[in-house]
Specification:
Elements lengths: L7 E4 L2 E4 L11 E4 L2 H7 L4 H8 L5 E12 L6 E8 L4 E2 L11 E2 L3 E3 L4 E4 L12 E5 L4 E13 L5 E6 L4 E5 L3 E4 L2 E4 L8 E4 L5 E2 L7 E3 L1 H10 L8 H11 L5 E2 L5 H14 L1 E3 L7 E6 L1 H14 L7 E11 L2 E14 L2 H9 L23 H15 L17 E6 L4 H17 L11 E4 L5 E8 L4 H11 L5 H27 L7 H4 L3 H4 L1 H4 L3 E3 L2 E3 L9 H4 L11 E11 L5 E7 L4 E4 L2 E4 L3 E9 H4 L3 H11 L14 H10 L1 H6 L5 H5 L17 H7 L12 E10 L2 H7 L5 E7 L3 H21 L12 E2 L3 H36 L9 E6 L2 E10 L2 E10 L1 E3 L18 E4 L7 E6 L1 H6 L3 E3 L8 H7 L2 H10 L3 E4 L2 H6 L8 H10 L3 E14 L1
Parallel strand pairs: 3-4, 9-17, 44-45
Antiparallel strand pairs: 1-2, 2-3, 4-5, 5-39, 6-36, 7-30, 8-9, 10-11, 11-30, 12-13, 12-29, 14-15, 16-29, 18-19, 20-21, 21-23, 22-23, 24-26, 25-26, 27-28, 31-32, 33-35, 33-37, 34-35, 34-45, 38-39, 40-43, 41-42, 42-45
Length: 982
Amino acid sequence: MIRLDDLTPISQYEWEIPITFRTDMRVPVRIFATRDLLEQVLHDRSLEQAINTATLPGLVGAVVVMPDMHQGYGFPIGGVAATEFPQGVISPGGVGYDINCLTGETRILHSHGYTRRIDEMVSLSTAEDLACLDIGGLHTGNTRPVRWLKQDPHTPLLRVTTCGGLIVSATADHPFWTQDGMVPLGRLRPNDQVAVALFQGVDYETPSTKVILSELDYRAYLARIEHPTRGKVIQQILAQVHERHLLPLQYDSPGIPTLCKIAGRIFGGGSLRIDRPDTGRIAFQGNLTDLEDIRRDIIKLGFRPGLIMERRRKHILRTTCGEHPFEQTDHRLTVNSTALAALLACLGAPTGNRATRDYPLPTWYQHAPRWQKRLFLAAFLGAQTSGAQIVSEHGTDFSAPTISIVKHPRLDHSGREFLRQVADWLGEFGVQTHPISSPSEQVDSDGKKFIRLKLVLHADPENLARLWSRIGFEYNRSRRTLAAAALLYLEHKRQHLQTCQMAVPGIASGESATHPNNCETKTGIVQTSQHEGGRTTSPAREGLPTFNEFRRDLPIGDSAYVWDRIASIEEISACQPVYDFSVDHQDHNFIAGGFVVSNCGVRLLASGLELEAARPHLDVLATRLNQVCPSGVGTGGVVQVSVPELDRVLRDGSRWAGKNGYASAQDLARTEEGGCLEGADPTKVSERAKKRGRDQIGSLGAGNHFIEVDVVEEIFDPVTAAVFGLREGCLVLQIHCGSRGLGHQVCTDYVQEFQGAVRRYGISLPDRELVCAPMDSPEGQAYLGAMRAAANFAFVNRQVLAHAARGAFEDIFAGKAGGWQLTQVYDIAHNIGKLEIHEVDGKQIKVCVHRKGATRAFGPGAPGLPPEYTQTGQPVLVPGSMGTSSWVLAGTEESMRRAWGSTCHGAGRVMSRAQAKHEIRGDSLRRELERLGIHVRAGSLPGLAEEAPAAYKDVEAVVETVTAAGLTRKVARLRPLAVIKG
């Protein structure tokens, strides 16, 4: 029996059992606890088990024991030990990346369509919007940067090139969005698909402070309009504009980018009328989702647009070939705001009937940066010109986009001048046009004659690529999506034709690389053409899919992003700093170098739902959670899968959940190891284990597993809490569960298997429960593969439960209270063995860290954290017992140096389950908890008694120990409101 006198006190929170205590110890034992906490475990085998653990082969540093320690199987629960890789051992009894960054030249895409180098963006305002992928809705979104990060790389730098020609350099751990969710670059291989944005935009230029529109100009415009003689209409309009900070307007005014887009849309097909100061109206027609985008931008400016209206209309299209009647559903958005209408008119937007008005392009744009011109042109083209359309019989050539305007015959010159200005602006982006066509006459329904003028763009691939990649389309999602696929197709076609050219003798090799269509027009190709059924075909087209065939599975929803394949990945020199952003978006990604990237147990989800709004619904919420989250011994889960599908769960972990709609990109990014331990091997998991786990995905089980609704009672570190998404007085949700019967069976199987391995490898152990095998042995490798598979199962189990819980919150609170959406704070494992890099005796070495009933607590700047937590340290989740507080802590650098980046995982038992059931009545406990305002749902009263607060240590004392010892920092305390147990 270990006595308190056997321990050497280092401080009131840290003790040591020296290596000299027993002759077979290979390393000392370091214990983090107060004297009171130590005295509570002297009667069990916790410390003896820690000393036994210190005898394992290959150990380095020290065996560390946390203040929530209690007796376990082999290792003490709360024990942490590291064995050197690969000669150290891995022990089932002990189980229960670097910063993701980009190189400085990487260009980041802004939602306004410009790019900036990431190393130049340190001063970027958090009010700016970066482009991103809204993964839930699969459309183009935007996000605001929270923090800009810079450091030296700690992992290899890799350069990845795609088949579409994109190139970016990033650290091996930087996550890229794939069809399996966010995956670190180092895990990707050639031919893997990644999400990319082939839209390049233009370089950023700083707008000047020159005034575009002054209050005097605006007031003068209003005075020119006929207005009522009574009231103070003009003063009221001016007040509206001033309230929205839209006067004076300068090139660098925050509202200018949005006004550029709206003006472009009006030039392209909107309607603006302003007859008097109290009758201004703006109207747009188009696709419902495009009008929703316009509506959001108008709200962003501070105005209140009307609802989007739908109507079915009959039309007659009159052409030289006759009349063509048709019906269509129209959507219309109207904004009744004289203040906004007058503002746009002052900026040069045409009012009234554009066909009978003489209007040039606004002159103030001549001094605007190119990215502001792009916004105008992209919105104009989104309404005016055609998208990527195939014209040839082969299905491989694109038609020439056309800009068409209708004018009264007397305005022929004005119309031509307008199109000439458009052509000049397009030329600034390298987009070439043909001469303006001769006007064609047409007659409207009233018999009035008009002329149609056309500006046709060159249809050669390079010109189209410049149009779609530099200007693109705003307020037209379908054209934007089609253009993204067309850009990838053009590159595929260029490479195909270049290959064909190289195969035909006598053709210069350099020409087709820059002019793809040359492959079809060069003499060597034409001479070998074949005539089939009256149609000339070229051998160059053989093997080239049509555009419609090629684009079938490319688009990602209606976003501007497509799936591209990796062509190559190579390691490059790491002698440069690397950079990253943390961003404020639920899917936590942004566009870097054209790639969709992430800025990159127990699970905690946070909400913005305030307690007072939720209080009347807590009881029904507890019932609903109990219904949708199965619990209890042997209970089936939310999801049942086939055996082949279970293998995919075991191999891919949370990536499987993401692919099947149970997880968002942010969920994966905020899960330890992205929710997937690489090297998981389903073939090393026994059929018995698979049988036990096959129908248990999305289930709690029993024991100390629970789902708990808490309120954030007190915040101790406001800055870190804000980064974690925690707000005082708001609800959060904890999910504590593991790998169910599958994980238990894996451990059982390998404990039995390792009994023979110990003998085969001549390993002497003081306790047979410590059975182990060398990591580089067949047995050790098999267990590593099976253990990782079980961990992946646990990640998926918690993820599916989180998905079900989100549905319960929506069922109860949608329409009744705001802020009910649950976002993930973090998911961490409690029982796991992982290969990590740690400093030992001044050297960085790879070790296998066994954490049993302990949790990772990586500090600021440590490997393996999402970038948004790089400066705060990792969230550490410490559940209390029923009826007591739980804690959110943050990892520290001290934890990395002194405890293998680890800390406590809960309160820790002081009473066995059998003793608890004997001494505590479940019905009495339930009444006591409900008297405290805690809504309880339990599968059985004996199971409830097992987890009574009296069976556990004081979580406050445990947390005080690890924070006073410097292993963690306090962030927030949570108070329970509802508990769901098996």
